[in-house]
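Recall that a protein's primary structure is simply its ordered list of amino acids. Everything else, from secondary elements to tertiary packing, is in principle encoded there. The following example makes that idea concrete.
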Amino acid sequence: MPSEKVYNWGIIGPGRIAHNFAEGLAVLPEAKLYAVASRSEQRARDFAEKYQVPFYYEGYDQILTNPDVDIIYVATPHTSHFADTIMCLEKGMPVLCEKPFTIHSNQLKKLVHTARSKKVFLMEAIWTRFLPTIEKVIEIRESGEFGKIKAVYADFGFYAPFDPESRLYNLDLGGGALLDIGIYPVFLSLLLLGKPVEIKAIADLSQTGSDESCSILCKYPVGQMANLACTLAADTPIEANIIFEKGRVKINRRWFMPSSLAITDSKDKTTELNFKYEGNGYHLEAREAMDCLSKNLTESRKLPLQFSLDLMELLDEIRNQCHIHYPGVDP
């Protein structure tokens, strides 16, 4: 259960995802959006005015010296996550960092080492992990009702017109489908099936060298398979299908966010399962972080740092097979 303490949140990087997170926090009585920092004073001020945030800062140093900030949500571009997160950790500040945690696993290993050595809370902000749909799928798997999982099919795609300067296509910003949206299908396969023994990945690269589309096949120790896809070239079903020995579960459209389930048993009878959501979904990852802080945990049991390390190593392997390279940040 959430602690009675009210946790003061700070946000570094008031971009689009930070607005979603701020709206999520608003439904949590145990959370207060207390401070925001941006490289632009105007953006920080505008964000603070919109969400009635008491403190706003130009630059990131001052937010870390505010004695009343309890935890920071890092919402800067992909390529800034490492520097911004390690800056917080070195000051002893707990961090919820937007996905992908870093650009490559070597960066993440340094973050994990810093967090563990300083005994500071750190978690990747994969909000999907805490959705009721995902919790229900895990419950079904653990119950054994439908037997073991045999296959996972998951996609995520939308149409994004080519713009070499946009964060989706600019390699200097970690652009490409894989790190921005492909991380979700890879996350789901890792969560449900663990680490694969074999990966085959191909990508169609844009003019900037970023991946516009990516297809991934994973094989697991006892014969399970995962078929995963992501693209910036078209709007796809954005569904996830989990095939069990004696049934199947479909997480309906836009499965990575608040959605519903279609559960089909061995007699081909389908039951729709809908969930009541009190917020936009981002509040669930914030609640998990605060629950960990209230229990003096430095890692989430539902989304531990080793899981994020495994996930980043899989993304590294996929990128290597697809010849996707980020200038100035790749090891």
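The first strand starts at residue 7 and ends at 12. The chain has eight helices and 14 strands.
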